[in-house]
Automatic annotation (TrEMBL):
Any one Gene Ontology molecular-function term assigned to this protein's record: hydrolase activity, hydrolyzing O-glycosyl compounds
Membrane-spanning ranges: none
Keyword annotations: Carbohydrate metabolism, Glycosidase, Hydrolase, Polysaccharide degradation
Taxonomic path: unclassified sequences, environmental samples
Name of protein: XynE
GO terms of biological process kind: polysaccharide catabolic process
Keyword Nucleus tagged: no
SMART domains reported for this sequence: Glyco_10 (SM00633)
InterPro entries from the UniProt entry: GH, GH10, GH10_AS, GH10_dom
Pfam families per record: Glyco_hydro_10
Domain GH10: 1-264
Hydrolase is among the record's keywords: yes
Length: 264
């Protein structure tokens, strides 16, 4: 309910009705709200990237203005109610390059800097995070560390890194997973498991993200457990959970939060 396409359906219009109900519920029940998310290649309104009502792309200056206005409006609206924000989400590819999103095509790598700066200006007390999947890969790990160092070198605030942790029974490699925890902690930021789950389905595509369409495709094509999970597979799942939480316990001084995915 906090994605840009929901909050900003048209230029000059902000719709906080659903998100406000969510935040109020959390406040009424003493639950901490983490805002998610301010910049993501998915679920962004089409009008952000176009010139008025035409199909031509917006200019760099226009997109920058829209991005800053959106972030300052949203973060300002929830100031002192959302104490933390996922500012950037899934901006880096597995090979360590920046995702060629509309933000990147128009603004280059600067779009991340713009977002973190605007969020901090809107609420100087809020903690600001970068969140991504497949963070155990070496190239992506190195790229994320560079991102943190670059932001800090420019005097920008970044408090933590979210390792989404959409895991499977045979991925990620747990040694590489631990290396990422150590590497991110060494960058001087908090490390969090932000979307933790374990997929028992076969994963021939090697996908490790949260793309709804891809997950649906996997279930339709590859789900052999429509009648329930066999005992042997359940045991495998139990062991995987145990292995992960052994890692989290080992690195408990570095990990500030574990949030489970899909709990309702």
């Amino acid at each position: 309910c906090m994605k840009p396409e929901t909050l900003a359906p048209a230029e000059g219009i902000f719709d906080f009705r659903v998100a406000d109900k969510f935040v109020k519920y959390c406040q009424d029940h003493n639950l901490k709200v983490i805002g998610h998310c301010l910049v993501w290649h998915s679920q962004a309104p089409d009008w952000w990237f176009t010139n008025g009502y035409t199909a031509s792309p917006a200019s760099k200056e226009v997109l920058k203005e829209r991005l800053i206005k959106h972030i300052k409006t949203v973060v300002g609206h929830y100031k002192a109610r959302c104490y933390d924000w996922d500012v950037g989400n899934e901006a880096i590819e597995d090979d360590g390059s920046f995702r060629k999103s509309p933000y990147y095509r128009l603004l280059g790598e600067e779009f991340i800097e713009i977002a973190f700066r605007a969020a901090h200006e809107a609420d100087p007390d809020a903690e600001l995070y970068y969140n991504d999947y497949s963070m155990s890969g070496e190239k992506k790990r190195e790229a994320v560390c560079r991102l943190v160092k670059n932001l800090k070198a420019k005097g920008l605030r970044i408090d933590g890194l979210g390792i989404q942790s959409h895991n499977g029974l045979d991925y990620p490699n747990l040694e590489e997973y631990e290396k990422s925890i150590d590497a991110f902690a060494a960058c001087g930021v908090k490390v969090m498991m932000t979307e933790l789950d374990i997929n028992v389905l076969p994963n021939p595509q090697g996908f490790g993200g949260a793309d709804i369409s891809q997950n649906y495709e996997l279930q339709q094509k590859y789900n052999p457990y429509t009648n329930g999970l066999p005992a042997a597979k359940q045991k495998e799942l139990d062991n995987r959970w145990l292995a992960l939480f052994n890692i989290y316990h080992k690195h408990r001084s570095q990990i500030s939060r574990i949030t489970l995915w899909g709990v309702s």
